[in-house]
Amino acid sequence: MKKVFGIESTAHTFSCSLVSSIDGGVHGQILSDVRSIYTPPPGSGIHPREASRHHVEVAPKIVEQSLTQAGMAMDEVDAVSFSAGPGLGPCLRVGATVARSLALYYKKPLVPVNHAIGHIELAIMLTGAKDPIILLVSGGHTLITAFSFGRWRVFGETLDLTIGQLIDQFGREAGFSSPSGPKIEELAERSSNFIPLPYTVKGNDTSFSGILTSAKKLLQNGKDLESLCFSLQEIAFAMLAEVTERALAFTEKREVLLTGGVAANRRLQEMLSEVSKRHGAGFLVVPKEYSGDCGAQIAWTGLLAHLADISVEVEKSFVKQSWRLDRVDVKWRD
Amino acid sequence: MERLIRKGAEADIYLGELFGRKAILKIRKPKPYRQPDLDSGIRKRRTLHEASFLVDARKAGVSTPLVYFIDPDKAEIVMQYIKGKRLKEIISDSKQSDIDTLYSEVGRSIAKLHKDSIIHGDLTTSNFLVIKNDVLVFIDFGLAFSSQRLEDKAVDLHLMKEALTSAHSKVADKAFSKILEGYSEVAGVKMVKDLVKKVREIERRGRYTRVE
């Protein structure tokens, strides 16, 4: 049984987790997952430096709590993994610094993990998906991917904003704190008044900037917030459903897996479940508590990478702010 | 009478007959998960676009199926049946060198469309039919629109590249450079240079760089 310690710090979340392997890495058990989330003041967005300051403050406490919760000491761990990108530079560097120190002091291998692949691997482990087409939706990502020839291949992605950015930036205009997804979802459920907003799909790619501009303008002109939240969700999610359906029809996969922070949205789940049904594919969604950024995604993926002998020397353990998932050779899958 | 031959993402394709000839009936069926006004708007708009761009593309010198009949309110198009394989299947079945000329032809045809301000909007390897291994027929113009902007042409090429790197990763680089070669035969080397630069810029945009 292998045990890997993971540190997540790509954006607003600093989180540590301990995960152990069962059956030689086919299944994992999350022994602990402790998080602290930086919340910017209402109406303003995440400031990388402020977020990293938060991470520095909470880091020692979170490391300790995650070990205590797992009932384990750092000596017993087989490797230390960290989110090496993509993400915000100052935030990434905090996690990387903590990971390097732990790896050096306890003489453990250091394992870099791609954050997007972390979302994917954890979702696969928790849902038991076999060979899915995946829609990854969060503040940092909006893409459709499936595994082929050693890598996660991108079948479609956003050409400008991510769906999380669209939701948060509109929420900010309405005076909410980020992340504002739950608040917008709640308001949307109270309306069925449809206001047209730009629907922009290009092949399997999406563009959300038109929706943001229009919705903000309509809000400033006094349109009611509930109808705008409803329409924004209906249009943006219909776009995501459409591009997923395109990729599904193209690849002829038998499963659709929804993951990332926005995966928790019930309306999006409903739409994708109907898309899957139409094509006779199974629909899976990551459990809500693990949809957002968390240490477990890094610890679990770190464990898979460790089993495939992947590690990095401390001197070469740079963070990569725009590390694309389709650049990663995934040696633990075939 | 009609037989369902393909259930696409957007439309169902039936094979039937019209005046004794084989014909395709393409129906964009309602999607129950979409808000009804949004759904009917999308289906009607795309049906009209498809019909008119299938015709415009022919004028630009690119082969497309003939349009026989359209009903925008039902989102239906009846068009010529083309007996051919999808490029996607041909790529999976062939060796790279066998279909180099086909890739160049893809590039030349895209350039012809662009020259006439037609942006296809959905360039994937499922949206070309190939007859007897050399004649190329463009289908699926539902996302097409008219534009002369470099940006729109570059997005079109980016979609082509994305389809190749995702579904045909082993041949993608070579195939895409052949496509660009063909494109430059029609549009010139300078144009291709500008486009490639723009494609790179577009590809950098959607990526984790700016979280505000």
Spatial gap, N to C terminus of chain B: 56 Å
CATH architecture of the largest domain in chain A: 2-Layer Sandwich
Write the CATH architecture name of the largest domain in chain B.
Orthogonal Bundle
Q: Greatest interface and its residue counts?
A: A-B, 56 and 39 residues
Give the CA-CA distance, first to last residue of chain A.
Answer: 22 Å
Structural class of the helix and strand makeup of chain A? alpha/beta
Roughly how many Å is the radius of gyration of chain B?
A: 18 Å
Low-confidence spans of chain A: pLDDT under 50, at least 5 residues? none
| Share of residues in helices of chain A | 40-55%
Structural class of chain B: alpha+beta
Number of helices, counting only DSSP H or I runs of 4 residues or more of chain B: 6
What spatial order of strands do you see in the largest sheet of chain A? 3-2-1-4-5
Strand content of chain A: 15-25%
Shape category of chain B = globular
Strand order of the largest sheet of chain B: 1-2-3-5-4
Counted up, domains of chain A total 2
How many H/I helices of chain A?
9
Question: Can you walk me through this structure?
Answer:
- The complex is a heterodimer of chains A (334) and B (212).
- Chain A is built from 9 helices and 12 strands.
- Chain A is of the alpha/beta class.
- In chain A, strand 11, helix 8 (266-278) and strand 12 (282-285) form a beta-alpha-beta unit.
- The longest helix of chain A has 27 residues, at 225-251.
- The mean pLDDT of chain A is 96.
- By secondary structure, chain B is of the alpha+beta class.
- Chain B has 2 domains: 3-80, Phosphorylase Kinase, domain 1 (2-Layer Sandwich); 85-205, Transferase(Phosphotransferase) domain 1 (Transferase(Phosphotransferase), domain 1, Orthogonal Bundle).
- Chain B is built from 6 helices and 10 strands; from the N terminus they run E-E-E-H-E-E-E-H-H-E-E-E-E-H-H-H.
- Chain B has helices spanning 36-59, 87-93, 100-115, 150-167, 172-187, 189-205, and strands at residues 3-7, 12-18, 21-27, 67-71, 76-80, 85-86, 118-119, 128-131, 135-138, 145-146.
- In chain B, strands 1-2-3-5-4 form a 5-stranded antiparallel sheet, with helices on one face. In chain B, strands 6-8-9 form a 3-stranded antiparallel sheet. A two-stranded antiparallel ribbon of chain B has the order 7-10.
- The radius of gyration of chain B is 18 Å and the shape is globular.
- The N and C termini of chain B lie far apart (56 Å).
- At the A-B interface, strand 7, strand 8, strand 9, helix 7 and helix 8 of A face helix 1, helix 4 and helix 6 of B.
